[in-house]
Write a structure and sequence with these properties.
Number of helices: 11
CATH superfamily of the largest domain: Alanine racemase
CATH topology of the largest domain: TIM Barrel
Helix content: 25-40%
CATH architecture of the largest domain: Alpha-Beta Barrel
Strand content: 15-25%
Largest sheet: 9 strands, mixed
Number of strands: 18
Order of helices and strands: EHEEHEHEHEHEEHEHEHEEHHEEEEEEH
Distance between the termini: 32 Å
Radius of gyration: 23 Å
CATH class of the largest domain: Alpha Beta
Length: 379
Amino acid sequence: MATPIYIIEEQKLRRNLRLISDVAAKANIEIILAFKAFALWKTFPIFREYIHATTASSLSEARLAFEEFGAPAHTYSPAYTDDEIDEIIRCSSHLTFNSLSQYQRYHERAKGVSLGLRVNPEYSEVGTLLYNPCAPGTRFGVTADKLPEQLPADIEGFHCHCHCESGADVFQRTLVHIEEKFARWFPQLKWINFGGGHLMTRKDYDVDLLIRMMNDFHQRYPWLKVILEPGSAFAWQTGSLVAHVVDIVEDKGIKTAILDVSFTCHMPDCLEMPYYPDVRGAEHLEESSMYSEYSEYSDYCYRLGGNSCLSGDFMGSWQFDHELQIGEEIIFEDMIHYTTVKTNTFNGVTHPSIALLHEDGTLEVLRRFGYEDYRNRMD
């Protein structure tokens, strides 16, 4: 197999979609796809069998929803601009403003769409500050103390986002804060969007709790339509990034297997968050323990290095049960959600192809990248 390549597995994708569709039906809510986590548009025909809408945060994402998914987007952006707002409105069914000033500036131009405000409940259990949308000083949303008691007549919904790959128990605790801060405005609304980060396809996620919570919420506020917009949940554990070892180098006793992929270019969240991805057939080790003279597998411990010239383009370390060889396949698990939408062409490093493994076992390459893709970004 030519590498590097992202492979998304249709069987696993449909498994997630069936679960999400089942939750939506039992909880009487709408669950829509967040493009910021997954936007492989050639798979949209599969998605349309299970869901009916998507969420966008830019003009390009809104157009992708309208033109490729085939339905107008639920759109939110931290700040709309004069030269894009009209086209965004054309491609949207819902338009959420991040601030009252953005609302004042653009709401009269937004005819024919349902308008909302993003609100900030000032509570989130996301531990990594980089991913916490409610951290002090956040640029996202309006706090309760800044809202007028009577909302503008054309505001129909609230949008809030407080989670990142979170469980239903976290949502349960967060919902208490959302209601405490904002329930007095609910009679003025038609819908509420609880954002993303609801990782309902993870094995330990309490789906039954989520369904009960939403049905209880409907009992309290029967007029409110409820929307969730997860991203990772749709593509969770649906595919991998396949690479190969192209060289093995050693310095000061540290061995690095250089791959034909790059953490910086093709797995940026690993360095940003940071987190260590699962590598098939290997065990991640703490750096302090990997070269212990008492380690049973000390000869088989490697950093994995990217094929760019950035000094920090590596992660480590992993323990294998054998000595790695040049040409050997290295498979990074769960590399579809977020990873595929955040890649870049830094250094001109070859971008992984994207493929779909169909249920019948056939592998369809959806996209190959080449020199023209790198050159055209510089045009």
